[in-house]
């Protein structure tokens, strides 16, 4: 019933649907109910990024972030990969942002197993004609770097030209500097 309401002409109704889905996903006891619909819900959330109503897009972004944190990572990666590789803007950008949220909530071991699947799409997105897609790809690669480390990521980056690698290195250094300034410092007592 909720998914049917995504076709409603009223943008506030469509926005409310994503709000309800987000709240449902936050409830541990309801998460299993999404198993048969996970791919469909992810696709609907990503397609909503094309919606002309900004409130709908914001609600879909919030829902995507929640989904990235609660759904099984292998399932999310399996759904997002083809969209990142072949999807059109803004759906591909939304998929990359969702992947970034997923990476931020995982352990290095859980993501390392998917690097070979994830990186080709991100590297392709790094060449996208849309600057916002390229930026999203860079931020996702930076998040991956922070999670799995340079040694694990470097083999996937060897195909980048010098200027792209230099830009990526700049963003990685900036992220590292930010993480050291925001992490709690130990002071001698």
Summarize the structure.
By secondary structure, this protein is mainly alpha-helical. It has helices at 11-26, 28-31, 38-47, 54-70, 73-86, 91-104, 108-112, 115-125, 131-148, 150-157, 162-182.
Largest sheet: none
Report the sheet-strand fraction.
under 5%
Structural class: mainly alpha
Distance linking N and C termini: 59 Å
Number of helices: 11
Average predicted local confidence, pLDDT? 91
- Radius of gyration, Cα only, in angstroms? 18 Å
Can you write the helix and strand succession as a string?
A: HHHHHHHHHHH
Low-confidence stretches: 185-189
Helical residue percent band: over 70%
Number of strands: 0
Query: Shape from CA axes?
Result: globular
List the helices and strands and how they pair.
Layout: H1 11-26, H2 28-31, H3 38-47, H4 54-70, H5 73-86, H6 91-104, H7 108-112, H8 115-125, H9 131-148, H10 150-157, H11 162-182
Helix pairs in contact: 1-4, 3-5, 4-6, 5-6, 5-8, 6-9, 8-9, 9-10, 9-11
Question: What do you see in this structure?
Answer:
Helices cover 73% and strands 0% of the residues. It has 189 residues and is mainly alpha-helical. Helix 9 crosses helix 11 (162-182). 30% of the residues are buried. Residues 185-189 have low confidence and may be disordered.
Keywords:
189 residues; mainly alpha; 11 helices; globular
